[in-house]
């Protein structure tokens, strides 16, 4: 399918299917094409909108504060006539999904292998911040990438993900600027305050057991469901995309009021 670009936002996107709208947001250094295996298995049952974040894939622009990126996504969806979507965010984009629901009307949100407890990750990033900002960046990034579980993906899916993977130090540092420049405890407090404004159903899918901190913070949401697909790794949605697509369809049905 040919890509389209939002004229007002510069964000590249694909849209297909019919039914309730679902927005797919990729993780840092990847792009919207990583969602293709999931969208294919939805077989058009939902209106799937996969978006390239700024400075990723075919989108222009530079890294921006996540609240600004969320506004760009909302402007694109408005231009498409999309209202109250379910927003699915993988990794870093779980934050965008949560921000969207806290700032704009949504039916629900899906966190994929990341949730609202970021304190341990923020502390780790602060420890390696000098290396991230310097010539040792790629050494640190390789250690992070080695933990993603890409080896769990099937050959074709792994090839798809890696073909759409571009690591740029300026882009990573730009998107992580809030983490790098904010004390971890202060950042967590800001996220907790944002989560307090989420009043829609939430599904969190982890490729590992959820931590106590993740469970505790998800329990604060009004309607949160947790899936733990242990052993499937950070790209849990792609290890078995059919399973993820089926779970997503069930969740979307849960988000739509009956009657």
UniProtKB/TrEMBL annotation:
Pfam family, one: Abhydrolase_6
Limits of the AB hydrolase-1 domain: 22-246
Gene Ontology MF: a single term: hydrolase activity
Keywords: Hydrolase
UniProt-recorded name of the protein: Alpha/beta fold hydrolase
């Amino acid at each position: 399918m040919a890509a389209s670009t939002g004229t007002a936002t510069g964000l590249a996107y694909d849209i297909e299917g019919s039914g309730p709208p679902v927005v797919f947001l990729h993780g840092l250094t990847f792009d919207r094409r990583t969602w293709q295996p999931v969208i294919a298995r939805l077989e058009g049952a939902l209106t799937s909108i996969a978006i390239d974040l700024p400075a990723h894939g075919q989108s222009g622009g530079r890294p921006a504060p996540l609240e600004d990126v969320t506004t760009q996504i909302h402007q694109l969806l408005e231009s498409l006539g999309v209202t109250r979507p379910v927003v699915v965010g993988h990794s870093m984009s779980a934050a965008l999904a949560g921000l969207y629901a806290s700032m704009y009307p949504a039916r629900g949100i899906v966190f994929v292998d990341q949730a609202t407890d970021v304190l341990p990750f923020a502390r780790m990033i602060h420890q390696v911040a000098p290396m991230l900002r310097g010539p040792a960046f790629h050494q640190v990034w390789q250690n992070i990438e080695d933990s993603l579980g890409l080896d769990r993906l099937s050959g074709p899916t792994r090839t798809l993900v890696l073909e759409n993977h571009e690591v740029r130090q300026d882009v990573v540092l730009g998107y992580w600027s809030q983490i790098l420049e904010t004390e971890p405890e202060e950042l967590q407090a800001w996220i907790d305050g944002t989560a307090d404004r989420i009043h829609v159903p939430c599904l969190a899918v982890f490729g590992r057991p959820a931590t106590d901190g993740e469970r505790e913070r998800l329990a604060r949401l009004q309607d949160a469901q947790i899936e733990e697909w242990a052993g499937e790794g950070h790209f849990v949605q792609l290890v078995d995309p059919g399973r993820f697509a089926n779970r997503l369809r069930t969740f979307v049905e849960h988000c739509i009021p009956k009657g």
